[in-house]
Amino acid sequence: MRWARWKDNDTALNSLSQQGFHFYPVMLMSRVSSAASVVKKYPFYNCCLDLMEVKERNSSPLAYGEPPWIFKGSALYQLHLVKAETARAFIPKDCRLVEAFGYTLGGFFLASYDDSPAGIFDELVVIAGLVWNPPTSCAWAARVLVGSDEACLHGRKVVGLPSQVARFSKKITALPRTSGSKTSSFLSTIGLRTSSCSYRNHMDVEVREIKNQTAMNICNINLDATVSQQDFKGWMGPFIKMSLPNFSGRTKYNPNLLKYSCQIECRVRAVRPATVSGPYALDADKEDSSENQSSDVESVGRLPTGTKRNFSISVMLSKPILALEFNHLKMRVEAPTTVATCSQNTI
Fold first, then answer.
1. What residues pair up with 333 in beta bridges, in sequence order?
2. Which of 63, 74, 206, 277 is the most interior residue, by most CB within 10 Å?
3. Alpha helices of the chain — where are they, by DSSP H?
4. What is the structure's pLDDT at 203?
5. Per residue in 316-338, pLDDT tens?
6. Where is this region: Disordered (predicted)?
7. For residues 166 and 146, what is the distance between their CA atoms, to the nearest angstrom?
């Protein structure tokens, strides 16, 4: 805490406001041990500069710089068939879910950024489903787990995302490849097949959400991966450009309904879907929560925190249908815009 005193109250208040500080009259801060002695000087405003607010201000949009925000690295974009009743737990009541035969298209986006406004960090975006936005649709994030305090704060306050700080633990092992053809077996027999082709890199990613100094296991993601893009000599797929539109907001940190887009440039190729496993304690809770709450909930904000976590894990555990690996990724994120309401038009 730092104390400041001005003889001119208006000058003091204006000075603090212009600098973005939050201040409180000392008379309202009885919790400060030295307040009693300062209050005796009541003719003047004595203001306390809350250092936590200063830290928060430094981690707000100014710390990220002006949009668009650029992220570089690699990612796995995996699409799942998600039950519509599960996805509706996250979609606002005035938004229409894109669904067919009781399912919508969700999944997850697992990224590792080596260059971003928040530095190097990992991110897991759990996508609940698609929301109708004529003439196309937008993705809705159920949960965003990031390995950066700064990225978490920016996601919450600026982009309106349900961001949480998480810990990502990675383990890479080299596993022998199974013989894919008689030709490969023959090459191995005569010694013409190199040892690097006989093994594939296998990565286990453990994601733990950090809350109140406690790490809670969210999921384990098991996938094939290259140790580094520089060492990978295989085909990374064609170079593409694509746009991923998203809805966000309606959270306690940002109550507005927002829309933003991610412009992506990368090398893309289809890969074998990653295997996802959840915490063992989830099974019983998931069945009870899905039957009793998912069908009649209006917004994820009305669900208990534990239930929201379980619903997002349910999305991760749903059936995968396609996995795309993004290499040499460059993602350009535009500043979100406020939207009055989602479309209620039928599809």
1. 69, 262
2. 74
3. 9-19, 35-39, 51-58, 61-64, 84-87, 149-154, 182-190, 282-292, 305-316
4. 92
5. 999 999 999 999 999 999 999 99
6. 280-303
7. 5
Whether omega for the bond prior to residue 68 falls within 30 degrees of 0, making it cis, is yes
Please give the structure tokens belonging to residue 109.
Answer: 């986006």
Residue 343 is predicted with a pLDDT of 64
The number of beta carbons lying within 10 Å of the beta carbon of residue 256 is: 14
Which of 113-122, 170-179, 211-220 shows the lowest mean pLDDT across its residues?
170-179
Q: Do 261 and 244 form a contact (C-beta atoms < 8 A)?
A: yes
Using DSSP bridges, classify how beta strands 337-338 and 45-49 pair: parallel, antiparallel or unpaired.
unpaired
Residue found under tokens 């059936």:
319
Query: Rounded to an integer, what distance in angstroms lies between the CA atom of residue 281 and that of residue 329?
Result: 36
Instruction: Choose the most confident range, by mean pLDDT, from 41-45, 49-53, 178-182, 206-210.
Output: 206-210
The β-bridge partners of 206 are 169, 220
The torsion angles phi and psi of 247, rounded to 5 degrees, stand at -100, 155
Closest CA to 333 of 25, 49, 72, 52: 72
Q: What is the total residue count of the chain?
A: 347
Residue 164: pLDDT band with limits 50, 70, 90: very high
Packing angle of the helix pair 282-292, 305-316 (nearest 10 deg): 100
Q: What's the gap between Cα 210 and its chain centre?
A: 13
What are the phi and psi torsion angles at 273 (to 5°)? -60, 145
